[in-house]
Amino acid sequence: MGTLSESDTAQLKAQLQDAVTSCTDRCLYQSAKWAAELLTSLPLSDLTYGSDTEVDSPMSDAPPPRTPIRTSPKDKIEAQLEAREIHKFLLAKTYFDCREYDRCAAVFLPGTLPKGSINTSSPQSAKARPSAKGKAKVATPTKAKFSLESISGLSQKALFLALYAKYIAGEKRKDEESEMILGPQDGGVTMNKELNGISTILEEWFSSLESNGRQGQGWLEYLYGIVLAKGKNEKQAKQWFIQSVHLYPYNWGAWQELSGLFGTAEELHHITPQLPQNIMTFIFHVYTSQELYQSTDQVHTELSQIQDIFPTSAFLKTQRALLFYHTKDFDEAEAIFSELLQSDPHRIDSLDNYSNILYVMGLRPKLAFLAQLATATDKFRPETCCVVGNYYSIKSEHEKAVMYFRRALTLDRNFLSAWTLMGHEFVEMKNTHAAIESYRRAVDVNRKDYRAWYGLGQTYEVLEMHSYALFYHQRAASLRPYDPKLWMAVGQCFGKVGKYSNGIRAYKRALVAGSYYDAGAGSSFGSQEGVSGLGGGILDPEVLYQIALLYERLNDLQECAAYMELTIAQEEGPEYDEYSSTPGEMTGVGVTPTTSKARMWLARWEFMRGMYQRSMELANELCQDGVEVEDAKALVRDIRARIEREKDESARAAVEAVERRFGRKT
Predict the structure, then answer these.
(1) Which one, of 38, 60, 36, lies nearest residue 50 by Cα?
(2) In terms of Cα–Cα distance, which of 136, 156, 157, 144 is closest to 112?
(3) Where is the Cdc23 domain (predicted)?
(4) Which residues contact 462 (CB under 8 A, 6 or more apart)?
(5) What letter does residue 413 receive in the DSSP assignment?
(6) What is the model's pTM?
(7) What is the reported pLDDT for 649?
(8) Residue 210: pLDDT band by 50, 70, 90 thresholds?
(9) Sign of the torsion formed by the C-alpha atoms of 547, 548, 552 and 558
(10) Contact, 567 vs 544, CB < 8 A?
(11) 654 band by pLDDT with thresholds 50, 70 and 90
């Protein structure tokens, strides 16, 4: 994708302007904000309507370049319906903006009240009359039934606003009935009770669409996809979202919902040919690849091509930072987020990810500044609460951190970062039950969150339920196949359950992943301790040592000794190759507790085989390294004693041989 021509840029500008207006009319404010930010990130030379001259200057009389308002002619039927109901639509929209969602929906879809709830007749008539069996009839609410004629007379814009208001009202009541976070009513107990009614109305509307001679606009299809996705009918939801983006490509909310339904990169590649061929599909592919942790060179190239069109887009810069974040290139990610913060200090979006980066890098002063800045901007945003929670977590004040993560979830129960981070804090507090529940909720929100799967595995390992831990670690490794730490966890679990051969294969997979993927300076489990990236062709000595131990359990001592030797070899590394900047420079890991354990095992192994000289060399090296010193000294004494004993036995055997020889002669 190259640079757009002037006509293409003008067309793109018109489409984005229409997207801002259309999304705002339908109260899809997040999608409208996304389109508006993308619109303003176009190069100024293509958007400027004149120069920065004074208003009364003669230069200001030049007419601005004309830009088409719409890319396609509007349906005449829809235009007539919208013109007829404009006053009611404005009333409904003001109700929505005032968060009176039921009142907004009732403007176009009036419902019925429960019988007996309000009665203006005499008090006696309000009494319940006895039934034939002598029992009073209980007043029960009746469901509002909408005839096809009542909804067919509405424009698609009005019907969408009414049904969307009903959906939001149902979500609001669901959150209210759920009560406290991780309480008895929280989780899958409460449901949005408006979904069935919305689904019925939309099904009737779509069934009569062709007979009425009307065409879909993409908005009701988008809402129906949301309802299907909420009902776990994801296959049909994908098709409706695809239909929605074909009819109206610039509704970013539909692309986001579609992205959330993909679990693997293969699913994305399979569905891509069914998508419209435009710039929105290009942006969607980069965004979904980032969500699926596909930080490849191709994705970076595609992102660079889009940034050529939108050079100042904060959204695209954030995607670049998240790509670096997923590959644990924290320095690059932190630099991009820092630049974004300087250019727009009041932008709260994705600050929770920035705080995670600062936490892992141990930049406590920057994290404190970020928490202060976010709190001053808007303290009641979930991202702000996560930033403050990370700040208290780095100070080891885990109770306060949990309090802020709970606050974030009170504001938005589907905020993924808060569930995962709260699980980390519960692990630090040794509250395994709450940690497991938090991680489960994170997985419910987003099945692609490998941190939550890994956290579940770690928590079950603490409970010594290794079969459960193995399942969750395998799920995490399937999401991040090039993360060596995840494969190490899988190998450890296989070793715990007695499947040593599978454990060896998992550890070898970790070695392969380590050669492809730099594990970075931090752990994805939420602590500052992690597997450091070795690089330079160095293999992780801990993985090699664990492979050797598993071979020992299989009684394959020759392979075990070979991997122990390989573990020790990582201390020095290659003396000269392309990884070393100076010939002769050592690029190894140096002496570590793991290499010292391997050296101790080899020293005992050589001692058992009778190779006392090699065993003595290894034991003396241990004494010099300062690790396993006492065991090494004890082994040296045993070696010397064995050598002295064998010398004495050899001398005694020689004397006996001489005596026998001379005794025979006499």
Answers:
(1) 60
(2) 144
(3) 11-321
(4) 427, 432
(5) T
(6) 0.83
(7) 66
(8) confident
(9) positive
(10) yes
(11) low
pLDDT tens by residue, 138-158 = 333 444 455 566 677 889 999
- Cα Rg of the chain, angstroms: 34
Instruction: Determine the Cα–Cα distance for residues 206 and 240; give it in Å rounded to an integer.
Output: 12
Tokens representing 568? 């020790």
φ and ψ at residue 57, rounded to 5 degrees? -75, 145
- What is the per-residue burial (b if ≥16 Cβ within 10 Å, else e) of 319-340? bbbbbbbbbbbbeebbebbbeb
Closest C-alpha to 265, from 242, 228, 296: 296
Helices 541-553 and 557-569 sit at what angle, rounded to 10 degrees? 170
Does the pLDDT of residue 311 top 70, yes or no?
yes
432-441's contacts with Cβ under 8 Å and 24+ in sequence apart are: 432/459, 432/462, 432/463, 434/182, 435/459, 436/460, 437/182, 438/182, 441/182, 441/187
Nearest to 420 by CA among 387, 456, 452, 457: 452
> Contact 399/429 with Cβ under 8 angstroms?
yes
In 3D, which of 19, 70, 60 has the Cα closest to residue 40?
A: 19
CB 319 within 8 A of CB 303: yes
CB 70, CB 14: distance < 8 Å: yes
* Inter-CA distances, 48 with 37, 43, 272, 310, 513, Å: 16, 9, 35, 15, 49
Q: Name residue, tokens 């705002």.
A: 24
- The single-letter code of the amino acid at 356 is N
List pLDDT tens digits, range 100-118: 999 999 999 987 444 444 4
Average the pLDDT over 529-551 and give the result. Answer: 74
Helices (H), 497-590: 500-516, 541-553, 557-569
Q: For residue 161, give the H/E element and its range.
A: helix 156-178
Amino acid at 283: I
Q: In the Cβ-directed half-sphere of 578, how many Cα atoms lie within 13 Å?
A: 1
Question: What is the rounded CA–CA span in Å between residue 631 and residue 97?
Answer: 74
| Residues 9-23 pLDDT 10s | 899 999 999 999 999
- Supply angle C-alpha 412, 258, 524, rounded to 5: 60
Residue for token pair 């970020």: 370
Dist CA 499 CA 507 (whole Å): 12
Measure the CA–CA gap between 285 and 282, rounded to whole angstroms: 5
Residue in 561, 563, 543, 545 with CA at minimum distance from that of residue 604: 561
Q: How many helices (H) and strands (E) does the chain have?
A: 33, 0
| Residue type (1 letter), 71 | T
The closest alpha carbon to 420, from 408, 397, 411, 430, belongs to 408
